[in-house]
Amino acid sequence: MGRSAVASAGLxxxxxxxxxxxxxxxxxxxxxxxxxxxxxxxxxxxxxxxxRTGRFEKQARATVDDGWGAPGDIQALRTxxxxxxxxxxxxxxDSPDISFDRxxxxxxxxxxxxxxxFARPTHAYMGLSPGLxxxxxxxxxxxxxxxxxxxxxxxxxxxxxxxxxxxxxxxQPIERVYRTMRAILEVLSAANHPVGIVTKSALVQRDIDLxxxxxxxxxxxVAVSVTSLDPVLARKxxxxxxxxxxxxxxxxxxxxxxxxxxxxxxxxxPAINDEEIETILTRAHARGAREAGYIALRLPHxxxxxxxxxxxxxxxxxxxxxxxxVRDMREGKLYxxxxxxxxxxxxxxxxxxxxxxxxxxxxxGYAKSRTRLRTDLFTPPAGPGQQLSLFQL
Length: 393
Fold this sequence. Notes:
- With 393 residues, the protein is of the alpha/beta class.
- It has one domain (5-63, 80-367): Alpha-Beta Horseshoe (pyruvate-formate lyase- activating enzyme).
- The protein has helices at 5-8, 132-136, 144-152, 175-178, 180-190, 208-216, 231-237, 244-256, 277-286, 303-314, 319-329, 347-364; strands at residues 80-84, 91-92, 102-104, 107-108, 137-141, 162-164, 195-199, 220-225, 261-268, 291-296.
- Helix 3 packs parallel to helix 5 (180-190) and helix 9 runs parallel beside helix 12 (347-364).
C-alpha cells in the first residue's frame, strides 16, 4: 500500500490489515473515506463520521457513494434504543489508579457523541461499531433499580461509594424518557448509600430534590465535566452534550443546593484544549466548584482511528502536531493502558500539564482534599420476601 494516509496523519503504530477499512484509504494528508476522495465528512449532530469496524469483526464495513444519488439522499442517522437485561448492575474493579471499587452505568453507548470517549471501544463487544453505532445504538439496562436493590440487600454487602458516569453519561438525552438514573438514585437514597456522579449534562439539575437531601447526610457529590469553554469547539467534540455555559450553570445550581460539586477538565487534549486549563478552573470555581481533577486524552483500540478522522475533518493543519504531542505523553505510542500512566501520561509534556493544574488549584483556592462520603448510615433494603426489622419501621 506504500506510505498510507493514516501514517501521514501520525498513526503508524496502529496495525492496518485486511479487516481494517483503512486498507482502502487514499493518499491524502489525513484519514480518508473508502473511495480515497478525502477525509470522511462530519455529520451534523454526531461526533464520529464513520462506522469503523470493531476489532472483533472478521469483515470490514465501509460506506461508499455509488454515484447514483445526491448527498441529500442520505437520511440523517436516527438514535435506536434497545433494552439490555443484565444479571447485575454494580460493576466491580480493583484498579490501583482509581479511587472507587464499584460503579454503575445505567446505559450502554452515549448519545452525547463525544469523539474522544475512551468507552467507545466497548461497543465492539456487542458486535457494533465504536463509531456511529456507539452514539446511535443505545442500550437501556432494564430493571436497573430492582437489580441494585437486590445487590444492596445481599447478605454481607459492605457499602462504599458507588461511582456513576464513569463510562457513559447517566444523564444523556434518553434519561429524560427512561429515568433509569432517577430510579437508581431513589434506591440509593432510601438505603443511605453514598454515590459520586460524573456528568456533562444539565439534566442532573432535575434530581437536586434527591441529591440535596443526600448531600446533607453526607451521601452524594457531583463532578461536572467541562472540556472547553469555547462553544464552537465543544459542539465539534461533544455535539449533543450541554453547552459550556449550561455546565457552569449546573455547577452553580448544584453548589447552591449544598451538594459538594467539582469540575473535571477531561480530557486534556494537547494543542486543542490544554490552553484552557486555568480558565476552566477559574470559571468553575467562581460558580461554586470546590474540587477539581483532570484526565489526559485516552485513545484505546478503535478510538485512535476515530479521533484521527475527527482531527483531519476539523483541524487538518495541526492533526500531525496533536498526535505527535499525544505520543510525547504516551512514551511514543498513542495510548498506554498501564496503571499509573493511563490517566495522566508520562514525559515532559504530561508533567507540564500536571504541574500547571497543581499550581492553578492552589492559586484559585480549590480544596486540597476530596469530600469523603459516609457509609455508616447504610441500611440494606428489604429483599424480596424479607420483613423490615423494628429498627427500620
